[in-house]
Amino acid sequence: MKKEVSCEKVFLVRNLLFFLIVLSSFTVNAQKDAWFYLRARDTSFTPSFEKNGDYLIYSGNDARLKAALKNYKIKTFKKTWKHAKKQNLKKTFFVVADKEALMTDLLQNASHLFEFGELIAEEDKKIFEPNDYGLTSTIGENLGAQVNLDYLDVMEVPKAWYYTTGSRDVIIGISDGGIDSLNIEFAGKTKIVSKSSLVKGHGYSVAESAAGQGNNAYGIPGVCYDCSIYATHFMHITTLANLVELSKMGVKVINCSWGTSRYYETAQQAVYEILENGTVIVAVGHNPDFSKTRGKSLYYPASYDKVIAVSSAQHRYENYWENIKIEKDKGLYYVQNIRNYIGLNAGFKDNDTTQVPYLYPISIRNINSAIDIVAPSTGIFRYSKLVMNNEIVMSEFNQTSGVAPLVTGTIGLMFSLYPCLPAEEVETIIKFTSTNIDDVEPNKPYAGMYGSGMLNTGRAVEMVFDMFAEKEPVKIENQRFSRWDFKLTSLSEVVMKNQQFTKDATLELTSKKRIVISENTILKPNSKGKIQLKIDPSLKKECELKLRNPSILND
């Protein structure tokens, strides 16, 4: 006997199917907006658009461009300096549209305007930018200082901001000169624990880089721009009593862009106490050049055990031939600010620019065996100049003072994302996620004196996310460690690939799930080193991840 189905039920089923198809189609389209870069042929070209709801409508007079754009829904079409080489600054556009075909259409049908295009991969869309992100902004606006923040791009800070922009519950300590707690970048989140001298605005620039307020259409965003700030002076070098005080007040990471050449055992014991309290100290290796120090000069607190010691490296030009200069008086060629070089300037043997350059020791800031990490130092925004002189100024040289707050802000983001992160594991994550620069030819004479490599904020924060989200494996890769003590505890699976722990290196690695030793991994410590791998199914999160957007867990 055939079962009868009413017309009403058929109608409901058909409509339900139609609704699901439409919803599915909408979801797919929403997730697959095309992001790409376009390079114009001329720096003066700037197309005009008018806003119509959520989309942009071309309002210019170029008929070919108008025809190429008419069949697409365009959300963003703006100039950006992001990833643009020196010769392509002011010619690069960032575009968000409904279809990838727009890029091809523009290159073919508006070839008189555009010469190159590059699609942005889905994984690279996991970024967030505030509205004061400067000239390299893409999805963010550019309502703050009109400055090049490419050093934050190289550190992949927008990738970190995808997960967190900081938390008021996480306090960053600034021990670097006086600041005004009512200043627009610090107001509402800053406490002056102990007053300090102005020191030419040193504290302003350090605090801005680490935790200056972001997304407020002013200045620039600090790395951990939604973190709180406690400021103190930089005295008590024998006992670090000012830093101990901050630690007891709940500060999670303290910035010290200063140092002394004297070692004090009382200060070393204070460092141990501070770490036991759950606070990390970041300090500079200091500024004397290598031609004088030869890797033998230690500065403190940077060189104390359990302090993260930082020095400077360069970030701007990916290849040395992009920025070859000439000394007019002597006719000598040299290069400047080349990415991952630990010195600012490098010259050529026999003045031959076809050879790989060598670093001028005088352009290398103090490095030694105590340095843990390097980060960008040249072209850093100097907020003190805006506060004191109403000037927009970027650093021209590679002093280490501007480096430390980049590391400090990164650690602030790590604690903001997972407040229960063990302080003793922070340095491990910073080093595991750094960019190995050992194979950069000009760096090789200085091996062992610039730490684990170049800071990568994005990877550091992403590793914290992966450790506790239990979605993707934690990756330890592409480093060759022959010293240092590493400790990491992960709820997620851990995969080691193209990784070495040899000689004096120690590793205490615990995973709730499993540890995978993948290709090109070498675990061969000597009698001073030690490898301990452990699976502990009883591991549990001590607190929840605090994400900028909770839906990120569903990505």
Structural commentary:
There is one protein chain. With 555 residues, the protein is of the alpha/beta class. It folds into three domains: 34-125, no CATH class; 151-467, Rossmann fold, CATH 3.40.50.200; 468-554, no CATH class. It is built from 13 helices and 26 strands. The strands form seven sheets. It has a seven-stranded parallel beta sheet, with helices on both faces. A four-stranded antiparallel beta sheet has the order 4-5-1-6, covered by helices on one side. Strands 13-14-15-16 form a four-stranded antiparallel beta sheet, with no helix packed on it. α2 (63-69) packs antiparallel against α3. The radius of gyration is 26 Å and the shape is globular.
Which short descriptors sum up this protein?
23% helix; 13 helices; four-stranded antiparallel beta sheet; 26 strands; hydrolase; 555 residues; Rossmann fold; serine protease; alpha/beta; Peptidase S8/S53 domain-containing protein; disordered N terminus; serine-type endopeptidase activity; Peptidase_S8/S53_dom_sf
Short description:
This protein has 555 residues and is an alpha/beta fold. It has helices at residues 7-31, 63-69, 101-109, 150-154, 157-161, 202-211, 241-248, 265-276, 290-293, 383-389, 404-417, 426-432, 457-469; strands at residues 34-40, 49-52, 55-58, 74-79, 92-97, 114-119, 171-174, 190-192, 228-231, 253-256, 280-284, 308-313, 324-327, 332-336, 345-347, 358-359, 373-376, 474-477, 480-481, 485-490, 494-497, 500-503, 506-511, 515-517, 522-525, 530-535.
